[in-house]
Amino acid sequence: MKIGIVGAGSIGLLFAAYMNGLFDVTVYTRTIGQAERINRNGVRLVKGAGPLTANVRAKALGTGPMDNDLTIIAVKQYQLESVLSHLPAKGALLFLQNGMGHLRLLEQLNVEAIYVGSVEHGALRETPDTVSHNGAGLTRVAVFRGSPDLLEKVASLLSDTFPMKLEPDFYEMLAGKLAANAVINPLTAILGVRNGELVENPRYEKLLEKVFEEAAAILGFKDPQDRLANVKRICRNTSENRSSMLKDLDAGRPTEVDAILGYLLDEADDREMAAPLLRAFYEMIKGKDSNGRESC
Amino acid sequence: MKIGIVGAGSIGLLFAAYMNGLFDVTVYTRTIGQAERINRNGVRLVKGAGPLTANVRAKALGTGPMDNDLTIIAVKQYQLESVLSHLPAKGALLFLQNGMGHLRLLEQLNVEAIYVGSVEHGALRETPDTVSHNGAGLTRVAVFRGSPDLLEKVASLLSDTFPMKLEPDFYEMLAGKLAANAVINPLTAILGVRNGELVENPRYEKLLEKVFEEAAAILGFKDPQDRLANVKRICRNTSENRSSMLKDLDAGRPTEVDAILGYLLDEADDREMAAPLLRAFYEMIKGKDSNGRESC
């Protein structure tokens, strides 16, 4: 089975390294330089016992036709619009973006099968061809449109080494992840703390609950207490991790705040809900985003 | 005229240096060591052209009777309760604490004349006997109880070198300062920025307005737009300054958050007002307070 992976960041490289061998994998990079480097060196996976090298084929995106059974789109949400025109009109697509803002873009696509996924692995791209797998987790996937057949086949082939779990309802799945992201990312980024700190420090935990409350109201959760417990569990399970938003701010990279808080605030506006805390954190992250890091 | 100054932090030393010569000044320190050092070296005032030395008399607080015409209490709000029992029962008292939480303590005192003040100078204690006067401003003072006569006399003697301005209404004076502190201190401390950044960065300015709105509602301002303009003016006038709360957090010292946000939230609770942003910033500052600085 031919698998295309669009985007060679941490998630794209992680999927390439684990799926290569079981599938015929091509990675589509943004630059020709990175494609050449991966074709020369393979993708190095740093994990536990020692690095493994996967001999993955790579092409720069847009330099030729894409002909895959499944194409996995592993770019950030804010990069999605720029890659959409390069995606194939045939085969199935799997989108791994955070948030839910990308769903309205997917509705406009003409492909028969569209899947969405939510990645629960910790991964860090160390060089253009090296990815470190820091936290083993799983990938939750669900059907957005069409038949689940291909997705089920891929999931069964991956089995234990890189588990992919089929979820019955894409909205529930993405909304759950979004709520966790909307709470953990902005709070850790503004407070400058690792994930675990949000539940270890009683003051931060109280704040986490208040912020979660606003997100849960907007997303219309039927079981907010279970969802809140899940967010706290994620904080404990990834206790030593620094969130992606904290790392992005520290590195002066753009954050995913629009995909996460921006989406929730748009939804809140549509329904005339207040959400003062989400709005405050949005402004704080955007303020830091626009400034780069402060010197004092 | 005999002036006592309780507390030899930045504000206490600043007042001692400027009032010495015009008045017979005694500084009351917390430790015997600091009193000995000041008696030996005087108080060094670093400002503009070069340092000046004021030969100020110093005593450790509680080591003897206090017999002054005016005693100025220049300790932080959270240190106030521990010095109250040492204050003289005669003469006038001038309290320079931030916030308004100390007013209920003042009501219990038996002294005839009580004044309150609000210091608009920038000062930094560099060593136990050296203070740097970074930002020349003024001290606003008002009568809390009794006759203004002594206060007027002191103000006229200080005149231009260290101006003291009499305000007609202590509540208006302290509420105005409190609103500015409630906005500028927590925001700069959590965002890690200097004061000017709050009005230079449009995202932060929007946030400042939202936080101010909550404080203004609690304090019952009749002219919120003028007050907001004043807060922004303070940000611009002290543009390069790092707020006291930011400095306290950075140095791992306790902050004045209880005197500032804690007071406002108590008032909000009494009147069943929500104040979600003030509450969130309170939890964030308290969380950082309790942790010392984060390492990541």
UniProtKB/TrEMBL annotation, chains A, B:
It holds the Pfam family ApbA. Residues 175-288 form the Ketopantoate reductase C-terminal domain. Its EC number is 1.1.1.169. It catalyses: (R)-pantoate + NADP(+) = 2-dehydropantoate + NADPH + H(+). Residues 3-144 form the Ketopantoate reductase N-terminal domain. Pathway: Cofactor biosynthesis; (R)-pantothenate biosynthesis; (R)-pantoate from 3-methyl-2-oxobutanoate: step 2/2. GO terms for cellular component: cytoplasm. One of its GO terms (biological process) is pantothenate biosynthetic process. SUPFAM superfamilies: 6-phosphogluconate dehydrogenase C-terminal domain-like (SSF48179), NAD(P)-binding Rossmann-fold domains (SSF51735). GO terms for molecular function: 2-dehydropantoate 2-reductase activity; NADP binding. Gene3D superfamilies: N-(1-d-carboxylethyl)-l-norvaline Dehydrogenase, domain 2 (1.10.1040.10), NAD(P)-binding Rossmann-like Domain (3.40.50.720). InterPro entries: 6-PGluconate_DH-like_C_sf, 6PGD_dom2, ApbA, Ketopantoate_reductase, KPA_reductase, KPR_N, NAD(P)-bd_dom_sf. Keywords: NADP, Oxidoreductase, Pantothenate biosynthesis. Belongs to the ketopantoate reductase family. PANTHER family: 2-DEHYDROPANTOATE 2-REDUCTASE (PTHR43765:SF2), 2-DEHYDROPANTOATE 2-REDUCTASE-RELATED (PTHR43765). Catalyzes the NADPH-dependent reduction of ketopantoate into pantoic acid. This is 2-dehydropantoate 2-reductase. It comes from Neobacillus piezotolerans.
